[in-house]
Each structure stands twice: as C-alpha cells, then as structure tokens.
Design goal:
FAD/NAD(P)-binding domain; 2 domains; single chain; 10 helices; alpha/beta
C-alpha cells in the first residue's frame, strides 16, 4: 500500500516537498489559500500594480497524483490532521510547512486571490496619493520597500524609523550595511535610528491619512501613510498532543538534524517555523523541503539512512528597487547593485516558481500588461 503524506501549508517549502513526494506517495497538500502566493514579489506589487497578477499562481498543475485541499489545518497530531471543515485525514507522514505571518504588504493576508489582489490595489492607490511614507523597521523588508517606493516615485519622501542603532540586525559586515546606507542616501531615504516612535500611529497601516509621527527623542514627521516592516510570527498554534513539546515559547519548532520533531520520526518541519539558527528565507525553505522529502522517501522504502540538514550561512540579498541593492554571502563577500538586480531584482524569481508549479510562462503581451 502507498504511504499517505500530509503536507500542511502551500508556501515555498510546502509546494517543493509535495511535488518531490508526488510520485512515491499519496500526497495531500493542505492550504487555506486559493493559490500559491509569491511573497518575494509582494513589495514590488504594492508599488507597481502590473505585478499584482503575477503573485497568485494556481496549484492546479503542481501534483500529478496527489490532491490539494483548500482548507485550514486546525489540529495536527502525530498521525492525523483535522481540517476546519471537521474532516480528519490519517497520515503515515506529516510535513509541517505553515510558514510565518508578516504584516501586509510583505505578505498578503487574505485567502482569496481576488480579495488579496484588491487589497494590494487599494494599498497602491493609497501609497500613490500619500505625500510622505513612513516605514517602521530597518530590516530587509523596510529597506526593500523603501527602494521600491523610490523607484516608483523618486520625489516621494520616505522615512525609516527603527529603535536599533543600525540597519539590518544579524551577522553581516559593516561594509555591507555601509553600502546599503549609501544607496539609501542616494535615493533620498531618511533613516532615523536609535529611537522608536513615542506611540503607535493613530491610523491603520497602508491607509492614506495624514498625521504627525513623533519619535521618543522628539523628532516630528508629517506622514501621509505608514507601513509596519517587522513582526514575523511562526504559524504553529495547531499542534496537538505530544507534538506540542517541540514548540518553543516564540512559536518556532525544535527539529533534529534530519528535520524531524524530536520523538516523532514521521513528523517533519520545514521553513520559517523551524528553530534552525539561520535566516528565514524562501531558499532555506526549499533546501529544507529537499532534505525532508528525501528522508520520507527513505523511510517509505525501509532505509535507515537519513540525510542531515546543514544550516545555511548568513547570506542575504536586499534589492532597493529593480536596479539597486546589495547582497552578501561569506563565500562571495559583498555583491553590489548590478548583480543584486540580476539575482533578485528584475523578475523576482517568478519564472522559477511558475516552473515548480508546472505552469507555462505567460504570453509576452500578458507579461507586459
């Protein structure tokens, strides 16, 4: 009999794991959203609405044998998944790939593609009308959004505020941060670091409404719109029974070197939800998926030999609009704007994920629309 594998979550790691196992197991991919959402391109979509239609990619051609269930996993035990509908799915193996929540627009927060598209269009209109954009958070999202805004509206004032004393927390060299600060200055982005706002903004984020923001040290800024650019939260509240022991206080899951939950060899966790000490990136989730899928294949075949995952080094790519930004990896060092644009800036890796999902490239006229 063929083993049943339940993959919980249809993000980057989930689709990769499901596709890798499709030919050797009965795969159920459980995902509440209508489509895969390519979050990597979400910030460009809010500044350039021509990109919005490219974010939402159907699951219809991902699996040849398995099925995609549009529902939410509300309870996951060691050998079963309970859906929001009440249906219970028995599984021989489970892959937890539910990712993380992040404030809009870095991650669209609605399950229906039409509603999520409409929200992005509304945010674009609000941002276009606003005279001054305030971004709270000088991490990768805040910097990237600043670059996208300046690429779309070079004259629009953009201010980034962060209580940290420098941009980009993490083990990156000072020269890398200096390169990004230099490019931000050339774009006209204002950095206010080392002080938080005195209080929460009085308006909803992504809404065009004027107010005055004041930092704790007394700096006042006339703002037309603001965005929260921090606050990733792993989605793991569905764990039940003995699986809960793997959940840390911050919501991340402790895994073995083989990406299994401790004491539960048939349950794997991949992507943003893991407590692996590395940057939470799409590429890491894809690498996790390879290891988890290979190990499930070994277990199905009866092999005791399991692959181990090695955490990725602290590399990062921070585009500042389609033509700017910088990247860093210990092996290659600092990579400047032109190469960063080639890595991530021009097409934001959409062709690669269309291929993974089994979709043909859109016609040239659709791409240009």
């Amino acid at each position: 009999m063929t083993a049943t594998v339940a993959v919980i979550g249809g993000g980057y790691g989930g689709i990769a794991a499901a596709k890798a196992l499709d030919q050797i197991a009965d795969v159920c991919l459980i995902e509440p959203r209508e489509t895969f959402v390519h979050n990597v391109a979400a910030l460009r979509a809010v500044t350039d609405p021509d990109w919005i239609g490219r974010l939402f990619l159907p699951y219809s051609r991902l699996l040849a044998r398995g099925r995609v269930i549009q529902d939410r996993a509300v309870r996951v035990d060691a050998d079963s998944v309970t859906l929001g509908s009440g249906e219970q799915i028995a599984a021989d193996y489970i892959v937890l790939a539910t990712g993380s929540r992040y404030p809009f627009p870095a991650k669209p927060d609605l399950d229906e593609a039409a509603a999520a598209s409409a929200r992005l269009h509304a945010a674009h209109r609000a941002l276009a009308d606003a005279r001054h954009a305030l971004l709270l958070g000088a991490g990768p999202v805040g910097l990237e959004l600043a670059g996208e805004i300046k690429a779309a509206w070079p004259e629009k004032p953009v201010t980034i505020i962060d209580p940290a004393r420098d941009i980009l927390s993490g083990a990156y060299p000072d020269e890398f941060r200096a390169e990004l600060r230099s490019q931000l200055a050339a774009l006209g982005v204002t950095l206010i670091l080392g002080t938080p706002l005195a209080g929460e903004p009085p308006t909803a984020p992504a809404t065009a409404q004027a107010f005055t923001a004041t930092t704790r040290d007394g700096t006042a800024i006339a703002v037309g719109i603001w965005f929260r650019c921090y606050g990733a939260e792993p989605v793991t509240g569905y764990l039940a029974g003995g699986l809960q022991t793997a959940r840390q206080d911050d919501g991340h899951l402790r895994v073995t070197g083989q990406l299994q939950l401790q004491g539960h060899p048939a349950v794997f966790a991949i992507g943003d939800i893991t407590a692996i000490p590395e940057a939470k990136r799409a590429q890491a989730a894809l690498a996790h998926a390879q290891v988890a899928a290979a190990n499930i294949a070994s277990l199905i075949s009866g092999s005791p030999d399991l692959a181990s995952y090695s955490p990725q080094p602290p590399g990062i790519s921070v585009p500042l609009g389609p033509a700017g930004g910088a990247s860093y990896a210990p092996r290659t060092g600092i990579v400047h704007a032109e190469t960063t644009a080639q890595i991530k800036g021009a097409d934001l890796m959409i062709p690669a994920f269309r291929q993974l999902l089994g979709l043909q490239e859109p016609a040239a006229q659709e791409t240009a629309r």
